[in-house]
């Protein structure tokens, strides 16, 4: 906060800093004063501000008198002064001096130096008045908390400018930046976006600092970047993985620092290791294996295994190796084995395995080898096992590894309101079939069928029901890949008698998105003529609308994936999407909001259905519907994302439980947007 205050005293003069203009120097004092930078070190305002930002504060006593004496002797000495130039000393202190200050301050004043005294918290107000130039109301200032130190900036800046004979040109109050959103949170980066500040902004300063587990700022690792006035987004790189960051966006004006907006974001955890597994086991050893994520900074791996009694052993493994043997294990002892990637100077998440070494019931043969002895014959040799009474020899026919052929051309050949007749082409070599069917959102049923059957009737179905049907070919205890189709039973039948003069008819009261079959036959008195039929699906009329679906996609809800994808596919198919008619967007929410598809990317039904099939339930647990609604409002309803002015908009939320945050307020705001 002191650094920001000092920056605020430089900003009004930033464009006139130079060898023949305004010059700055800084001294830090506690027990012993030291020069942070001299008048001649920096010749432009940007360099001065950067130097202020890099000041590292030290602890110690409060010897203000010694600090002022150091300034008088070293910075305002005869060799440093420019004739006929106003000279100013600004004292910033947060405590009562532990040495004499009045005489030293008087020495500065007698040299024609204007002394400003700024006190914070534990500073002595009477001491500030004695140090400051007169009248004290123009040179002595005090606040009781560091948090409100910035409130002194307008007053102090104006008094400093006036003491040099100038007039501070101020600008009106403008709204600062707002709506800071974390668009992307990677392992070592955060992508942020904000709403622009009002007024003649010349740029933005973005400060970001990591937080401890208790939420305290680690100021020694604070960083900042600057962007131009036309920018409202940026990427913060080089961050630590799995770490909370406090990010502040500050508006910059020509002669002052504007308001700011802050928010917290968290980088993803560093992993580097996947598919950790036991590859091979023996009486006293384990062979472990894992897969490595591609990373140029990978240095190696740390393998740790801990026995039940707490004994821990650690190994360092080269980055080129993804297997390791543990050969010093004890029978009937449980171990927790962990492996983690060492990437640069950081360590990724450890992946655990729980293992127990059990003694073998029978010893294993070793040194098995084959010796040819003639046409169609081989001799097998091996080292005997102590106390073995016999050996079992198993010969495996390698042809068994040939994949089982699935059935072909699975199709519906007939259906009614309660039954579906299926037919398929038999699979060669099959010993039977497994037929499985399930209504949308309902329980699964199955039927085993003999090999000579290639048709089957599924009965006792619901009228107008949609069923997922799949069939696999069986060969002994092995099963082929499934062949799947979707079939629908007929709905309740209705009929009407029309006058002979009609050649068209409008049918109303139908359900949106349903498939209907219409049959018509002429009547000649009591005799019916030949019947003709046509099938079609009800759809939305061609109209302009923007529709966004907000879907809950956390890992613990993955069992809903198939039902949600089926629901979205059916609904969107009826909307007849297109770039000039209905635009469709899809967003996901968990503890945060994410987008899958923007409105301006939904050009045709085929691509929409492909995106729905790619919907992944990979987010960690969270049910913040309010955060999801805010994400849609802030990110997906802008013209650049495809939202059209004057076109009706609809948000459809697919929720499966109560929201963990406030959803009412965001819902009210998005309705009014």
Automatic annotation (TrEMBL):
Gene3D superfamilies (alphabetical): Immunoglobulins (2.60.40.10), von Willebrand factor, type A domain (3.40.50.410)
Coiled-coil segments: none
SMART domains xrefs: FN3 (SM00060), VWA (SM00327)
GO cellular component terms, semicolon-separated: collagen trimer
Cell compartment(s), UniProt: Secreted, Extracellular space, Extracellular matrix
PROSITE patterns registered for this protein in UniProt: FN3 (PS50853), VWFA (PS50234)
InterPro entries recorded: ECM_Assembly_Org, FN3_dom, FN3_sf, Ig-like_fold, VWF_A, vWFA_dom_sf
PANTHER family cross-referenced by the UniProt entry: COLLAGEN ALPHA, VWFA DOMAIN-CONTAINING PROTEIN
Protein name stated in the entry: Collagen alpha-1(VII) chain
Natural source organism: Thamnophis sirtalis
């Amino acid at each position: 906060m002191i650094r920001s205050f000092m920056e605020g005293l430089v900003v009004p003069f930033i464009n006139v800093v130079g060898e023949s203009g305004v010059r700055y120097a800084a001294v830090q004092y506690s027990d012993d004063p030291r020069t942070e930078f001299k008048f001649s070190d920096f010749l432009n305002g940007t360099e001065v501000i950067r130097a202020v930002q890099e000041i590292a504060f030290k602890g110690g006593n409060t010897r203000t008198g010694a600090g002022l004496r150091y300034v008088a002797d070293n910075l305002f000495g005869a060799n440093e002064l420019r004739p006929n130039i106003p000279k100013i000393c600004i004292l910033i202190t947060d405590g009562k001096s532990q040495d004499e200050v009045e005489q030293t301050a008087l020495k500065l004043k007698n040299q024609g130096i204007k002394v400003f005294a700024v006190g914070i918290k534990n500073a002595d107000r009477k001491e500030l008045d004695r140090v400051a130039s007169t009248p004290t109301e123009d040179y002595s200032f005090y606040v009781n908390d560091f948090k409100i130190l910035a409130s002194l900036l307008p007053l102090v800046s104006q008094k400093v400018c006036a003491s040099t004979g100038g007039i501070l040109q101020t600008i009106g109050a403008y709204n600062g930046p707002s709506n800071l959103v974390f668009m992307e949170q990677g392992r070592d980066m955060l992508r942020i976006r904000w709403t622009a500040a009002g007024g003649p902004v010349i740029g933005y300063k973005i400060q970001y600092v990591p937080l401890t587990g208790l939420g305290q700022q680690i100021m020694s690792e604070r960083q900042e970047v600057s962007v131009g006035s036309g920018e409202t987004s940026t990427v913060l790189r080089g961050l630590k993985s799995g770490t909370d960051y406090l990010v502040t966006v500050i508006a910059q004006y020509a002669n002052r620092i504007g308001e700011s907006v802050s928010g917290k974001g968290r980088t993803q955890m560093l992993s580097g290791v996947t598919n950790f597994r036991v590859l091979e086991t023996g009486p006293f050893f384990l062979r472990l294996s894992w897969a490595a994520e591609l990373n140029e900074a990978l240095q190696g791996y740390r393998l740790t295994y801990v026995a039940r009694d707490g004994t821990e052993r650690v190994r360092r493994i080269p980055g080129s190796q993804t297997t390791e043997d543990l050969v010093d294990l004890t029978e009937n002892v449980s171990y927790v084995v962990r492996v983690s990637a060492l990437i640069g100077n950081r360590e990724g998440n450890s992946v655990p395995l729980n293992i127990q070494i059990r003694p073998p019931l029978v010893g294993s043969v070793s040194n098995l080898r084959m010796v040819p002895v003639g046409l169609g014959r081989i001799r097998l040799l091996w080292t005997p096992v102590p106390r073995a009474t016999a050996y079992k020899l198993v010969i495996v026919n390698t042809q068994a590894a040939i994949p089982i052929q699935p059935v072909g051309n699975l199709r519906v050949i007939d259906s009614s309101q309660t039954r579906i007749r299926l037919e398929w082409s038999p699979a060669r070599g099959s010993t039977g079939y497994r037929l499985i069917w399930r209504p949308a959102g309902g329980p699964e049923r199955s039927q085993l069928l003999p090999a000579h059957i290639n048709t089957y009737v599924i009965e006792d179905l619901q009228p107008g029901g949609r069923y997922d049907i799949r069939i696999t070919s069986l060969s002994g205890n092995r099963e082929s890949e499934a062949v799947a189709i979707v079939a629908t039973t007929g709905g309740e039948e209705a009929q009407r008698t029309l006058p002979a003069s009609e050649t068209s008819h409008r049918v109303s009261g139908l359900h949106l998105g349903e498939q209907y079959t219409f049959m018509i036959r002429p009547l000649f008195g009591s005799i019916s003529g030949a019947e003709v039929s046509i099938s079609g699906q009800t759809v939305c009329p061609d109209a302009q609308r923007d529709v966004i679906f907000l879907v809950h996609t956390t890992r613990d809800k993955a069992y809903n994936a198939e039902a949600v994808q089926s629901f979205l596919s059916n609904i969107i198919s009826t909307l007849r999407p297109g770039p000039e008619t209905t635009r469709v967007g899809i967003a996901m929410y968990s503890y945060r909001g994410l987008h899958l598809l923007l409105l301006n990317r939904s050009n045709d039904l085929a691509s929409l259905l492909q995106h729905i099939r790619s919907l992944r339930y990979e987010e960690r647990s969270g049910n913040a519907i309010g955060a999801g609604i805010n994400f849609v409002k802030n990110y997906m309803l802008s013209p650049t994302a495809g939202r059209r002015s004057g076109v009706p908009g609809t948000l459809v939320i697919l929720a499966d439980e109560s929201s963990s945050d406030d959803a009412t307020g965001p819902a009210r705001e998005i309705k009014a947007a």
